[in-house]
Amino acid sequence: ALADALMARLRAAVPVLPVPLACLALSRATGPMEPAALLAEMSRLRGLMQQRADITSPPGQADPLAALHLRGFVETAAGGIRIAEGQHALVDFYAASVAHHLTFDAALKDSDMPEPVSET
User: Fold this and answer.
1) What is the average pLDDT score of the chain?
2) Residue 42 CB: number of other CB atoms within 10 A?
3) Which residues lie across from 80 on neighbouring strands?
């Protein structure tokens, strides 16, 4: 019970920022994503998070794709945007800062997690 209360307080205090949300979407993708598909997946994930908990998202955030390119986390390739070589661990680290908003329910099983988006 204490652990659940602590996690609930942490979820309420940790905002869902666009860069980690983009990292979560990219880390779950099965290949490069077109920018529009990436933004749509970010919106879908944010919606799922909002269904599970009261999340906060500060207004006026910069373009997450520009920030990811600037930091060298992603690159543009045939088929869209993908995680740059050697950056997967860092992208996963950023993604983990918001992924708990999808997995906090102890009864939630892996099969209940949203499927990764595949670009075809």
Assistant:
1) 81
2) 20
3) 77
